[in-house]
Every structure is written in C-alpha cells, then in structure tokens.
Amino acid sequence: MIRSDFLRIDPKRRANLDHKKKQFAAPTFKQQDYPHRLNFYDVPPTEEITLEQFEQWAIDRLRVLAEIEACSYRNKSAAETETHLTPLLQKYLPLSSNTSSSNGAADQRLKNERQKDHYSHFILRLAFSATEDLRRRFVRAETMLFRFRFQRDDTREKRAFIESLNLDWEPVEDDERQRLAEHLIGATPGLRRVDEEAWYKVDWERVPELVERRSVFLYKGKAYVPGREQLSMIIAEFTARLERALELTSRALPRLDEDDRLTPILNHLSKNFGSAESVYSEGEGFVDGAAITANNIDQLSQHFPLCMRSLHMNLRKNNHLKHYGRLQYTLFLKGIGLSLEECIIFWRQSFKGFTDDEFNSRYKYNIRHAYGDVGGDVNRRGRGYPPYSCQKILGDSNPGVGQTHGCPYRHYSVDNLIGLLQTTGVNDKEVLRGVREDVEKMRYHIACNRVFESTHKTEIKRVKEDGSWNQVDLDTIVHPNTYFKRSFLLKQTARASKSS
Amino acid sequence: MDAVNNKTIHNITPMMPHSVSSQGSSADRKDEEVLPDAPPAESTSEHKTDAPDNAAAGVKLEDLFNDDGDDEEYPASSAPAAQNQDTMQTDAVRAPGPEVDTDTMLAFYQRLFPFRYLFQWLNHGIVPSPDFGNREFALTLQNDAYLRYQSYATADLFRKDIIRMNPSRFEIGPVYNTNPRDRKTLRGGQLKPISKELVFDIDLTDYDDIRSCCTKANICGKCWAFVTMAIKVVDTALRDDFGFEHILWVYSGRRGAHAWVCDPRARSLPDDRRRAIAGYLDVVRGGNSSGKRVNLKRPLHPHMARSLDILKSHFAQTTLVDQDTFLGPEQAQRLLALLPDKGLNESLRKKWESSPDRTSAKKWADIDALAKTGKSSTLNPTTLRDAKQDIVLEYTYPRLDSEVSKKMIHLLKSPFVIHPGTGRVCVPIDARKAEQFDPLSVPTVTQLLAEIDAWDAEHPSTNAGLEAAEGEGSVADSDARGSRRVQDYEKTSLKPYIDYFRSFIAGLLKEERGGKRERNEDVEETKPESMEF
Fold first, then answer.
1. CB contact under 8 A, B205 and A402
2. Model ipTM value
3. The model's pTM
4. Which of A186, A373, A408, A410 has its CB surrounded by the most CB atoms within 10 Å?
5. Interchain CB distance below 8 Å, B301 and A186
6. Which residues of B touch A361 (CB under 8 A)?
7. Which residue among A221, A310, A420 sits closest to B243, beta carbon to beta carbon?
8. Do B237 and B281 meet the contact criterion of CB atoms below 8 Å apart?
C-alpha cells in the first residue's frame, strides 16, 4: 500500500488537464524547425501537405530505398554503393548540410529538403509497417540510408546532432583510462595511444556490432567505446528506435480509420517495394524435357554451380552432409525440378550406413519440410522455402567445422578454391588468375560467372552468333538454379545443333 | 476413483488462463503445509512396509497416481512384473552401451529427478509465476514422438505429467508471452518468446579433426580435456567481459557440455545481442576447406590474450602430449601449412621426413630451434610468433555450436535428464572445479537405483515408515516433520550434483528476490480467494 505511493505523481505536478476533456483538447504538437540535417524521426509530422506531395515524396524515397537494397543484394562494396547512390540521392532526396547555405539552418531550401525527408519517411512507415517482412526490410534500408548520410556529414554538424540526441554515455575518467590502457589498445584496431580518443562506457548491449567483431574492450558488462565508434552506437540506437516505432505503427494501422484517399496509395507503395531478393519465382529453374530423377543427379551435377557441385562431391565422399549443407542442396534440387519422392530416394541412397529407421527419424522430416510437405500452414502453403539465391548463400553465416554449405568462392581459402576448380576441370590459367583477383576484391558473383563463361565458351559464342539467345538470356547469374538451367540448356542446344 | 478425479481437477484448474499465478500459489502453498499426496501414500505404505526394495516403492508411487488402475499405461497389476524387470536391469548395468528401458526411466523420474529444484530454477522463486508457467518444454517420448509446446503451472503438475508421459528426455525452450499450450487459440504470430537463458553448446564431434584418441560419439579422459578448457575460456569471458554471474554448466550426457547463463539480463537478450555474443566468442571459423581457420589481428584483443594465457598450458599438455596431434604425416603437413615462412617449412619438412616417429612436442620445439639457426633469410620472428599463437588457438580454442546460442527459441536438453544412449545423468559441472570433472564417472541411472537399494538395505529401520512419501516432491517440508526423512537422491552419488544445483539456485534466487518482491506480495493478497478450490 505504502509502496504504491511512489508511483503517484505529486498532485502539484500533475498536468492541469481534466482527463474527461483530454481527448477533445487541441493537440499542441511540437513544430519542427529541423536544426540538423540528420533526423532520428522521433516526432511525427503535423503540417498539412497535398495528396500529390504525399504520393510523390513517398515514391521518391522509395526509389532510393529500393536502390540501396539492390546494392546490398548485389554485394556491392561501400565505394561502389556510394558512387551509385550519390546521384540518385541528389536527384530524389537531396539533403544539404547547414554549411551549404549562408543562412545556415534557417534557409528555406534546406527546410524544404528536410521536410520532404521527414514526411516521406513517415509516409513509408505507414506503408511498410503491415507485415513483419516489410518492417524488417524497411528498417534495413532506412538504417543503411541513415548510415550513408551520417558518414558524409561534416564533423561539426555530426557532433551537434549527436549532442541533440541526449544519449546517456558515461565518460571514462582519466585514471581509469590509464589503468586500462593496455586493454583498450588491444581491443581497438588501428589505435596507438589511448589519449587520442575520448572514451565512453556503455552497456555492451548497445554496441552489438562492435562486440560481434570483437573490436571493443568489455569489462563486467560495460563496453569501453572510443569516440570514433559513435557511428556503431548511433546506428544501433536508430535501428532500435525505428523497430519499436514500426511495431507501434503496425498496431495503430487498423485504427487509422482511413477513408479511401490514403489506403490505396499506401498499398500501392508497399507492393512496389518489389523484393529484389526473390529473383527466383517458383518453377523458374525447371528445365523442360530433362528427366530429373534421383539416379540422374550424378550425371547432371556437371551442370551445377561450384557451391552445389562441392556439396555433391562431399556427399559422395562422406556419404553424409551436415544440416545446412543438406538444406542448401535439397532446396537447389527442388529448384531444378526434382520431385519430393525422388528427392527422398536421392538422400536415402546417398546416406549410406544409416538404417531406414535412422534415416526416417533424422532426415526425412527436414526434406519434407523443405518441400512444404509438412510444417506449419504458412510453410505448406508456400511449398516450403524457395531455393537459396547467391545473395542468401553469400550472406549466411560462415560454415563451421565439418560443415560444407556456403559459397566456395567466398568461404574457401583461395588455394583450396583453385584446387576445387581444377578438380572440376577448370584449368585455364587465365581464368584461374581472374578468379583469384575477383575473390580478393570480394566479387564472388563475377568469379562464378567467369568460370561459367569459360566452361561454356563455345556454346555461348554459338547462340550469340545465331541470335537464338539475346543479351537478357545471358545476364549475370545471381542464382544457383539459373546457373544450372542455363548450363543445361546451352549444352542441350549444342548437342541438338551437332546432331542436326 | 473419486479421490483421483478430485485431485486431477484440482490440479488442472490452475492451468486455466488468467488464474495461473493465484491458483498455482494455492496448490503450492497447500503443498508446503501438508503434502496433497501424502495421506493416501502413507495409508498405502502401511500394508506394504514389508516390501524390501525400491521396485516396490516405485509401484506404490504408481498406485498413488493410478490407484484404480484406470490409466492403462501403468496398470497396478503389473507390480510383480515391474519388480522383476527392475532387478534384471540392475544386472544389465555393467554391460556396455546401456539402453535405458522405460521402467528404469520411470523409476528415475519418480524417485530421483529433482523436479522441485528444476522448477525453482526456471521459476526464479518459490511461488509459481509466468516464468515457469509460460515456459515451453518439449518431450521426446519413448516411441520417439516429439511433443512441443508443453507447459506446466506448478512443479507438481510438471512432475505428474513427466511421470505420466515418461519421456526418454525433454528439452527446455523459452518463456512465451502467453501460455504456449494456448498457441492455437491465438492469431498467427501472436505467440512470442520473451526470455530464455543464454545457452552455449560444446560438442566433441566438432573436435574430430584434432582429436586422435576417439571419434564420433566416443570419449575418453584425454579428449574431455578439450571440453574442460572450453568451459574455462567461455566461463571466464562470460563473467569478466559480459559481467554474467549465474552460469550453470551441465554435462550433456555423452560427449559435450551445455552452459545456461541465467542472469536476468542474459535471459531477456534479443536475438541480435545473442548473435553478438556468439560472434565474440567464435574464433575458429570456416570448414575443412577454409585453410587457416584462426586469423587474428594484432595486437590481440584482451579476450584473446587472456584465452591464450589459459590455453597455452593445455596446448602443451593435451595437444602435444596426450593427443600427440602432429605425429602423423598428414597432421604434420597441416601444421606446416599454417606456418608462414617457406624456407623454414622446407627445412622442417626435411627434418621430419627423416624421422617419421618424431613426437608432437619435439616437432613443436623444432619450429623455434630451426628458426633460431637463421637458415631462412626471409623469416620474420613476429610473424612466426603470431602464427604460433594462431595455431595454439586453432587447436585448443572452444568450438561452439553457435547456432544454439543465437536464437532465443532454441530448445536445449534439460539438466538432470538421462542421456538415452549412455544412461548417464546430465549433471551440473562446477566450472570452478572443471578439471576435476570426469564424464566417465558420472552416475548412470541404473547405478543410482542400485545405490538406493544398497542404502535401504543398510538402513532398514529409518526408512520403513517414511519411504512411501514420494521421492523428490517433499523436500521443502521434510524438516518440518520432526525427524528428517532421507531423500532418495541423498542415498546416491547424485547428491553432490543436486547439492551444487541447489546452491546455484540459491544464488540466483537471492539476486531475483529484490526485483520480484512486489509480485509475490500481490499473489499473497489473492490467497484467500484461491483457497476455495
């Protein structure tokens, strides 16, 4: 009883608003004057804008976000992304710094830019809060946009912006810093002297990125973060707040009580955020006329991309694959049109040294799950997971000890990769040198496509010459199933033309 | 029959939504004053005191719950048969590769499994709370069926259901925002995990490429050393770096160990923070084809420097002597591939080829010896030192199954269940004395049951009238009844493990008590109403 008094607000401090009238009171919103270029989007917009503006601004921002997503899917480096994005941002979503105008933040042009940025963000929030998947992608893209802009902000404005956020960072005192000097240097890459930096103590949960990369000193749950790692903390904070806000938006959405003006626009917007990830549509990898059965896989495996080929070779060598390898390979096989029954036969025959019971209890369920034969309603309706794209395979966690999944170009050491390529019959010195270079520059797609082009040289030349394949058919491969299909068809046409 | 039904109803009601805490507390409270099951138990024991061994006690327990034989699974008439099987089982203990049969398993759950402590551990208090009530359990039944989303309001219901189902093992999942049994009544995606211990899994199969003594499921004292060092490194990092204090290490029953980090802060970590910790601790990366698997930047991160300090002596003992890892030409070749200098490698290769039986310790010493002779002009001592450090880590640093740690919803086998393959109990390991832990001396279930028999034979008078009260259920109040009844587990070699578990829980509860007091008082206020049941 007594304890609950703590929660009670001192009567003198209570807001002088009758709770019965509260819902009718005119909202006194905080007007935004945008003192900084960057925005944490904490306060929603309140001014009126026209419907055209509403739609146009949203579309402009969407364009930028879609490009950002596409860049990340293509695995572009930071520098490439920057050259790609800068003109787009300038065109669709310019956001100038205070120093770009003689009036500073008071300039009307800056205000308009910032208002557009602010409003378009909130419009897209409405459009993308509906499903978990959309929310996740929106947060990702927005975070990348924020990071991109933050890195390009000038130092003074950055500092002013950070100060305006009121993040509670506890500074590390001098004597503590001296005491921990050795650890701080060890933990922070590229640092020579501890006095170069201002250090802050924060709960480690706030800098997960740094913790995961092991580039921050931890002691008893506190992370000792150097001033220049602010980015990581601010990004984490931005993401966390946006996630929370989207969650709230999604709950508020059904109560929006909207007429038919905004909802169609919003629906339209969310549909247009076309998923670049799902470059693979169901049945796309199927090849007509190819008899795809469990017994053919050995023979077909010559058309497989290196990732699947190495899985196949490992499977034949060890008569076993670990979970993620099985999953990656099963989905690929599903993608080339191997039926569930045949797939089960394939794995059954491949896993020598297991009894039927062991096989059925340990592995069969997973295969059926991948095909959508079992599992929750969602899984069944979606016919299981789609076959993994290169993006997915590249982005997944590194294979651990004894695991064989992943992309050989990315996850193998260069020497092992070259060795593997040679065992699959790629011996051309020029190609291998090219692969080495590509891998060094982390252009794994290019390396894979290079190998494809080299192994299908003659066929590609022919179809190009007789014009039966156009440029789109020979676009960069970004999906293992595309690799297979194209390889198979090319050999097929070659054989057909030879026999005719 | 009526008695049974009443009891059943009484115990099921607490599981209704909205009344979990208050109802649960009444059941629990009652239990502390007078055991709900005690009277019939004592009456049964009157005419059965002459029954000499534990098998009879097991049967009495069955009578307790199914005294009319209405439950087909455990008909009361099976008493003599059960007894026979039990003795037969005792003989079979010494046979290698024991497969635990259903009756042994049942007797273990009835007499030895510490349900109450497990409850207290997961409940973070004495009074049943959603921390326990909304916790998912997944049972693997004897026919290998897998039952997910089981949950129990109180320790007694938990115990009762486990005994009824007699699972070969069960796993513990997260606490959900609502009772996981109600998941089908919710709209899709409404059932969300809200907390679970941060867990780690070490399995010796991940060490197969560097342990020479055993492979696959087999272990010996030599390769267990890998787990010991893993425990030390991970435990130190979790305590010193992340500030966690309540870390329970558990033997997984065969060839590995699990860690349960139970601090409130650890339990509520979202998945991305879990991933961060897993990434922080994950050093040996890449599969068999990734070449050098440890590539650390210099200067070493404090965590790595400290781990290296811990592991150095283990490397000298385990890798170089016990395992003698680099003895064979293949492994020696692998060692060479990890060294940076070509010239040095060449001279090492020559030396080793000339004496094929050279031990690992000598080979390791050769590296420095040959480097000092200055034969290789290109050799950089710093690079060599760094490479040697990386090698030490590659061969000793913990190899965690990090997928287990990354997801809150991941299920992990409960402590104290029996590993069906080995029959060993998944006992806690005291990380402070990790070296003293010997997985091969962990008691098996049959051994434990035999120990009870042996104890009972030695102390016939003390347990005559008391034996009937069921195994573990009455620990909390046994003191109150005058002369303290000896628990079944206290008669066995399981005692030190359970005692350790209790002290662990006590530490955890002490920390929890501050934050929870308010909730407990609320429960007390509702007590009068709940007593109506």
1. yes
2. 0.72
3. 0.66
4. A408
5. yes
6. 144
7. A221
8. yes
